[in-house]
Amino acid sequence: MNQKLISVLFGFITVMLINGPVFANEAEQTDAFPVTVDLIMDEVSDISISRGQFRAVAEMLLSWTGNNVGLVGAPESRTLMGDAIDSYLAENFDPAIFVANAEGPREVMARSLTLFPDGRAELFEKFAVKLTFETAIPSYPFGDLDLHLELQSANHPLPGLAFEPRHFKFGHEEIAHEVVKGNWYLEGNRSEVDSVKSLSHGGKSHFSVAVFHIKVAHDFVDVAQKILIPLLSILLLSMFINRFSVIYETEDGGDNANWRIGGQLTLLLTLFALNFSLGDDIPATHYLTMIDALFVAVGIMVVFALVWGIYVIHVFQTGRVELGTKLEHKSNAVFMALAFVFMVWVSGFALLN
Predict the structure, then answer these.
(1) pLDDT at position 42, please?
(2) How many whole angstroms separate alpha carbon 290 and alpha carbon 288?
């Protein structure tokens, strides 16, 4: 009898050990809270491709149902403000979130919690935050940037809290204003849900992440005025100096040597100054962008024209007039061919995006 009893107990314990995780998972599933996320972007500004950051002002609404029994059956909804929100969330389900790609804490401008008789709860928050992004735009100033805002669950791992993005809009229809500020314009938007591991809860749990993507492109007119026209002007002036400066026919060479060297040297220094002044308008990447390639191409052309001019002047001033004349005339074709090759190379970056 004792052996049978021991066998029954042993079998029961074995079954519980095997099926225990299943029961635990079923319990977790019953505690799961799908949280709907609505987001309105009020402002996207201070986009810096050199630092990889931008500023956003947004309105967020988190909605959930199932843990608001204290108000079920009440005649009307109730809205909580200030410390009353924290007190309620401390005793009930708290869908705490943080902005995963923020450089610091978000600045909360307004906050309210509305409780409905049917068990629904809606947490509204308007906030400002400085966000980071990847400056992956090899065809800059063409192409687009993927700005994004990542809302991650802070306290409840999956499946205890699962985000469900519902609405993602820009601005309010009643107010006419540009949401994306500066020399950028909106090209599109989308939202998605992902999951990520966190050191919280022992580092083994996955947390829900709602990602809101903002696709923006740079204004071409601004880029043309600041970058393209100055760079192409430097390139053309360098080629004009090399082509139309007086050919030396005597050993003394006169003052033309000073102009030949001084002109190219001035263009080279201007190129360095332009690159320095455009620091905030050029992406800081570990690879070449289209603008970087254009700076490299123009720089090589100017340096080559400077070195070539010094050598040709030296040839003329040492009395080798015939050789100097040949070099002078052939240099025009060489420079045109080199400029064409560089322009084809630079144009190829427009296809990389």
Answers:
(1) 95
(2) 7
CA dist., res. 45 & res. 55, Å (int)? 5
Question: The pTM is what?
Answer: 0.73
Q: Among 40-44, 48-52, 161-165, 253-257, which is the least confidently predicted range?
A: 253-257
Specify the CATH number for 31-218; select among 3.40.220.10, 2.70.170.10, 3.40.50.1360, 2.40.160.20: 2.70.170.10
pLDDT at 255: 52
Q: Does 160 have pLDDT greater than 90?
A: no
CATH number, span 222-351: 1.20.58.390
Looking up tokens 């635990």 gives 24
